[in-house]
Design brief:
Elements (H helix, E strand, L loop, with lengths): L2 H12 L2 E2 L7 E5 L3 E6 L3 E2 L2 H10 L3 E7 L2 E12 L8 H13 L1 H4 L3 E9 L6 E4 L13 E7 L2 E7 L7 E5 L3 E7 L1 H4 E5 L9 E8 L4
Length: 210
């Protein structure tokens, strides 16, 4: 093996790369007009991206009101509004590729990026729909890129009339929730019983969807 070939092999392994989306995304239709698109290993060679985000993102504890108390949510957060520079050029490229791929169906760009850091198996997100803003009343899309330790994303219908669905999100995977998903279904990342290393989730949303 020549030195140059070795270098190029290392290069692909070490440089996070977006692979093409067209023709590689598998859609699952759910009852009530919701759907899930899945593209395993969308980002190849994602290890350095994961490390960079762990370091570079200003992670902070989020909080929410629970009755008369304010409690920390069980994960760390960072939110990038429209026009905020993202913490890594690959996250910008991913957002733009998603905007392009879904342009006809979505009719508007993905503009914001919410980041979550699940530090270990005890971190989680409880059952919810992204229903702040238009998510409560209109069809929209939320695209999630998952990095690090695989965790399942669970979905259950609000009407309780069909079984909970499980999508395993691995390192570099893309999952897109679309149609009525935020209104007619809820999603969650459950705690795990077994110790786990960290996971980072990046959620891209259109204007005024949270
Ligand atoms: O961690 C994830 O992939 C999902 C996070 C989520 O549902 C949210 O932040 O609204
Ligand atoms: Fe969510």
């Amino acid at each position: 093996m020549t030195g140059a070939f070795q270098a190029s092999l290392l290069d692909t392994a070490d440089t996070p790369t977006l692979t093409p989306l067209a023709g590689t995304v598998r859609r699952t239709h759910l009852p009530h007009g919701a759907w899930i698109d899945l593209r395993p290993s969308w980002i190849a060679g994602a290890d350095p991206l994961f490390e960079r985000l762990l370091d570079a993102v200003p992670w902070h504890a989020g909080s929410r009101r629970m009755y008369d108390r304010v409690v920390d949510v069980p994960r760390l957060l960072a939110f990038y509004r429209e026009h905020d520079p993202l913490p890594d050029p690959l996250l910008t490229a991913a957002r733009d590729a998603l905007t392009e791929h879904y342009a006809l169906e979505l009719g508007e760009p993905f503009t914001t990026a919410g980041l979550c850091l699940y530090r270990d198996h005890r971190d989680s997100v409880a059952w919810h729909g992204d229903q702040t803003g238009r998510g409560a009343t209109e069809d929209t899309m939320i695209a999630i890129v998952s990095l690090g330790t695989p965790r399942p994303l669970l979905l259950r219908p609000r009407a309780g009339d069909s079984p909970t669905r499980r999508f395993d999100l691995g390192h570099g995977d893309l999952l897109v929730m679309g149609g009525t998903c935020q209104r007619t279904w809820e999603h969650a990342i459950p705690k795990s019983a077994r110790p786990q290393s960290p996971r980072i989730s990046i959620q891209y949303r259109p204007h005024n969807v949270r």
